[in-house]
Specification:
The chain is an alpha+beta fold. It has one domain (55-282). It contains seven helices and eleven strands.
Length: 286
């Protein structure tokens, strides 16, 4: 009994010492130097625009399809690593952890993209971490005995494309064309019970001018040089992504899919894109 008491007393005396040793383990630098450029990168403000100087404006909506090779920087890595996250996980972290962004809902019909329905934190959590009913069966008879709710958080690999809303503007004061992204929204593909695709569902909208401060500090892989990493802000400002137009501002407020399908819809989107470039070219005077 006395030996047990002495052993216990000695263990209690040494416990703080071992705890202190564990806390003093040095942090290992995974690399040759500390990367600070992108983490402290500042957002370059837009040039100011006056309505009197705006000669032409056109609003378009685009789809960024992550299955295209040029857009893989938005999709990978699926699992977060030390210096990089996928585009969706950058959004998720800003919404759930940092609270630096505000998500906007689509309204009663789910189609509103004018940032009129700001979402609460609980609403955002219910979208990012939905609960699914999993059927339960009797182990003996095999009959269904009910449904059990289980969390089914949205994963990076579930987000296959994004929709962006942008304005094409020609400033006659500077004789320059600007493309200003107004909003961006992740879209998740939904399936029925047989695994047949039911189309894409827009989760929420983000106001892009607010997102710039978050995207400017999130690194993106550079295939040419690891020491010159880009950020998501760089990808958008330099237009380093592949996309296609699904809608332009029109009197009917309709998408291209409402009057064209398949290759015809792609051709219509390309026609709108070419028209934007031609209008910019025709505005020049010599």
């Amino acid at each position: 009994m006395k030996l047990y008491a002495r052993t216990l007393a000695l263990a209690l005396m040494l416990l703080p010492a071992f705890a202190g040793l564990k806390a003093q383990v040095p942090t290992v630098l995974d690399g040759a130097y500390v990367k600070e450029t992108n983490r402290t990168k500042r957002v370059i403000p837009y040039p100011s625009l006056r309505e009197a100087d705006v000669m032409y404006t056109k609003r378009v909506w685009r789809i960024i399809d992550l299955s295209q090779k040029m857009n893989h920087s938005f999709y990978f890595p699926i699992t977060d690593i030390a210096d990089r996250k996928s585009f969706f996980n950058v959004m998720r972290n800003a919404l759930e952890v940092e609270g630096s962004l505000v998500a906007y809902g689509g309204g009663p019909d789910g189609q509103d993209d004018e940032f009129r329905y700001p979402m609460t934190q609980s609403q955002v959590d219910s979208i990012l971490n939905p609960v699914e009913l999993v059927p339960q069966f009797d182990l003996v008879t095999g009959e269904k005995i009910g449904d059990k709710p289980e969390p089914a958080p949205i994963r990076t690999e579930d987000i296959k494309r994004y929709i962006i809303k942008e304005d094409w503007i020609f400033d006659r004061q500077r004789s320059e064309r600007y493309v200003r992204i107004i909003g961006i929204a992740p879209q998740k593909e939904s399936f029925d019970g047989d695994g047949v695709s039911q189309g894409f569902e827009t989760l929420f909208w983000l106001y892009y001018p607010e997102c710039r401060y978050v995207f400017a500090n999130a690194e993106v892989y550079n295939t040419q040089n690891d020491s010159q990493r880009r950020t998501f802000e760089d990808l958008f400002q330099k237009r380093y992504f592949a996309s296609y137009i699904i809608k332009e501002s029109n009197v009917y407020d309709r998408n291209i899919q409402s009057y064209a399908r398949g290759l015809d819809a792609l051709a219509e989107g390309q026609r709108i894109q070419n028209e934007l470039f031609e209008i910019e070219h025709d505005l020049w005077h010599y």
